[in-house]
């Protein structure tokens, strides 16, 4: 590896790529800082640059910094960017991973013995608890009941407090709150008998340890001095309280978030902590990131129009040279025609020069995926379902990673691209893609993606480093791009982006969902639609169908579709016929 490649960037080099507001984030290293960052405004670049700049200037000791986020994939992305900025020693973890690490470390001395095992299937345990109290529930209701168990814990409610709060909640299948409390108690008893903890218990137990054991609190406070929290609009009461316990009365905390992307209120997330940061930390600085580098001006304007006047909404300013076109709305006769229209739209985009991986189709509920999958398969369009089989779980990918790890122990000095090429050729790959679609093409695409990673490896990187990067990508769900259309729920699309996005099912009853009846619930659905729109870099297509099928009832377009009429000329409307 060359000296330049090995040398970490200087403080000046870290700041060079930042705009004025991002630079303010990066250089405001001490005290409480709230970063209100709109979609596509470079928030991850800003906070990773802040951490790296703090390390490069000697303000931060790497072992005293803890960066927190909410998903394993996001934590992996933070670590990857920090490594590139010369701050690879920083701990970047999810709340649960950080808490679990502390719990495992302190449990033997504070409680005794090894820490309890984590529940693998909450649903199975809840089903067992239901049997013990003679409560009959089906699989779908079990998932809803698991959500109630989680909500009570993240809100830090006692059983009595939950029962009182349940009066204002939509209960699973209209269940009696008292019976749900009975179920929760039975679930806790079974869990205790088995010496198990669920994910929410991990946070509660870690918080309890810090609050009850001065020695634990002292150790944690000595270990971590500076905190950065990404996606702060998603923080729940238990996560907020744990963060305050980690801080221990100090205030060297930087949080970043966007109130307009609060889409997990049902799981306890609250943007109130982000919007109330100044009241909680009176000497805090607030920085607004509103320059959108992702989307065309037309997409940005539609997003702004949708959220205008909502609490905490930012006014995004498009930075791309491409003015773009307003979102297109396609009205279809029924769901089948809608799915066909989506397939044709993607085929047209590819014919115009886009790749399949440039395109995503987003929907409100997972059940909407089936018709879309059928339509895409009939059109010969390759696709992947977000949350389906993961890239690194594919057998050909697992075998490749295993072979490369073995080769790394014996092959020295050979170019990475040659070793990878030889390895995947032994599994049937060749540089030319097979004709048509199907399993053979999907296997080729997976192996080709690994070849692409090898070609993009830094100059001077070793095979051992490359294979270690693959292992890290697998652990953090940081998958390489494969040329397939992505099908995803709107919730699972958060944090991702594509050049072309299609949002399907924009009807009353689906978006907003039928059980969203209060003003707060409708606002959450609006934010979900906003998340979908702001995933797009170049184009947004919104579709809706007047009927669910040949016998489906009549539907009306979503109230949110009207918000796509922007002053740029109005959303184009057409037919999916």
Structural notes for this entry:
The structure is a single chain. The protein has 577 residues and is an alpha/beta fold. 46% of the residues lie in helices and 14% in strands. It contains 24 helices and 17 strands. The strands form four sheets. The chain has a seven-stranded parallel β-sheet with strand order 13-14-12-15-16-11-17, with helices on both faces. α13 (237-247) links the parallel β6 and β7 (253-257). α20 (416-425) packs antiparallel against α21. The radius of gyration is 25 Å and the shape is globular. The termini are far apart. Residues 1-5 and 566-573 have low confidence and may be disordered.
Secondary-structure map with pairings?
Layout: H1 3-6, H2 11-16, H3 20-27, E1 33-37, H4 43-56, E2 65-69, H5 72-84, E3 91-94, H6 95-110, E4 117-118, H7 122-132, H8 139-154, H9 159-165, H10 177-193, E5 196-197, H11 199-212, H12 214-223, E6 226-229, H13 237-247, E7 253-257, H14 272-275, H15 277-280, E8 285-289, E9 291-292, H16 297-307, E10 317-318, E11 328-334, H17 335-351, E12 359-363, H18 369-378, E13 383-385, H19 395-408, H20 416-425, H21 439-455, H22 463-476, E14 485-489, H23 490-493, E15 498-503, H24 519-533, E16 536-547, E17 572-575
Helix pairs in contact: 3-4, 5-22, 6-11, 7-8, 7-10, 9-10, 11-12, 11-13, 16-24, 17-18, 19-20, 19-22, 20-21
